[in-house]
Amino acid sequence: MTPLDGARWLIRHGFAVFPCDHPELNRCAGLHKACDGSRGKHPAVAFTRGWTFDERRVHETFARGLRNPAVAVGACSGPNGTRLVVVDSDRPGAIEDVASARGEQWPATMRVHTAKGHHDYLWAPAALRLGNGLGALQGQFDGDVRAGNAYVVGPGALHASGVLYELDDPGRPPVMAPSWLLRALVTKPVRPVCKPHSRPGSRCEPRNLQGLVKFVADSMQGDRNNRLFWAACRATEGGIEDAHDALLEAAVQAGLDEAEARRTIASALRTAGAA
How far is CA 260 from the centre of its chain? Predict the structure, then answer.
């Protein structure tokens, strides 16, 4: 499936499409001042309004040059006004593991295989107004959720690693999101609360850069984002110099995607009042 094939397939199945950068271009085609190195994922148009359901327009756009197809999640609607939500697993089986831990079974739904895992497309009631937060799944799910003002790279796209985004079963449409998932997504996450002087041996003990870096480097799958967020908050609150670069390096070594780790650190800066 070429990028154009993927874009046309998406249009024909009711998904709003727009073009993203393609990693084989000499320069990033994304609308940004500076590329962060995550080639193939940057929108080449303002995705909140540059999407389309027009196959002719898509053909013209993708025929002009290399572009990856992407889906404007918030612009897609399903049966009875439902809205699209995409569960992005950073490794194969990540969301199945979450479901199993809760005594549930993950439904068979539209799935796109990615460079690291897969995107599962589902429908959710519009009244829930889901966003990109994990809710109660924070620290339990090795991945992300995309809903509302969000986008995902679609089938036919080429990842910078050379992996092609592929449909698992082109004949399988999105199903309704399971109720346990929706409840988890709308439940506020519980974050660890640390006092200025924690007891030795407590999970909030690291107070210097070396301890925070080790705390992040020792992260296991499913808890890496949580640990990085917590460590970045503590470093910001404590005014520890040069902490964020060191924490970023530790997070990448622990297995987090660099772009994802940067987003987590930026979120921590906002939470801690530094940005």
Answer: 8
Cα separation, 218 vs 205, in Å, equals 14
Low-confidence ranges of the chain (pLDDT < 70): 189-207, 221-222, 239-242, 271-275
Q: How far apart are CA 20 and CA 33, in angstroms?
A: 15
Domain range annotation of the chain? 3-185, 209-271
- Claim: this prediction has a pTM higher than 0.85: no
Q: How far apart are CA 157 and CA 91, in angstroms?
A: 18
Q: What is the CA radius of gyration of the chain?
A: 20
Contact of 142 with 221, CB cutoff 8 Å: yes
CB 118 within 8 A of CB 179: no
Q: Which tens digits make up the pLDDT trace of 89-142?
A: 999 999 999 999 889 999 999 999 999 999 999 999 999 989 888 888 887 888
The residue assigned the tokens 């009244």 is: 127
Are 30 and 38 in contact by the 8 Å Cβ rule? The answer is no
Alpha carbon distance 216, 225 (integer Å): 9
Nearby residues of 116 by Cβ (< 8 Å), 6 or more positions away: 89, 90, 91, 257
CATH architecture designation of domain 3-185: 2-Layer Sandwich (3.30)
DSSP secondary structure letters along 228-263? HHHHHHHHHHHT-TTHHHHHHHHHHHTT--HHHHHH
The answer to whether the CB of 16 falls within 8 A of the CB of 154 is no
